[in-house]
Write a structure and sequence with these properties.
The protein has one helix and seven strands. The chain is mostly beta strands. The longest helix is centred in the N-terminal third of the chain and has 4 residues, at 22-25. The chain has a domain at 39-96. It is globular. The strands form two sheets. It has a five-stranded mixed beta sheet with strand order 1-3-4-5-6, with no helix packed on it. A two-stranded antiparallel ribbon has the order 2-7. It has one helix at residues 22-25, and strands spanning 8-10, 27-34, 46-49, 57-60, 64-69, 72-78, 84-91.
Amino acid sequence: MVGSDQNAVINFNPFATGTVNPETKGITVEIEFESEYVSTSNDELIRIGGGLSTEPHISIFPNKASLYVSGNPIITTNFKANERVKLAFIVEPKVT
C-alpha cells in the first residue's frame, strides 16, 4: 500500500544486461495491483526497471502501462482505473 502523493519503485531491473539478459534468454514480468483515489491519470504509480528515463523500464499509470526503451514507449496497454489489474509483459529473446 502506498500513500497519497507517493509511488512504488520495485528494486528489480529485469532489463539489465548482468545476471538476466532478456536479449538472449527472454523474460516475463508479471504484476498484480489495484489503485484507488488517484488524482490524475498522469501519475506514475509503479516503475519496474531502470531509474533513468532513458533506461528500459515499465511504467504503470492509473489506466495504462507502458514498456519503454530509450525513453520511448514501445508498447502500451490500457485498462480500467480503480480495479484490480494483473499485467504481464513477455519479452522474447533476440534471434540472430
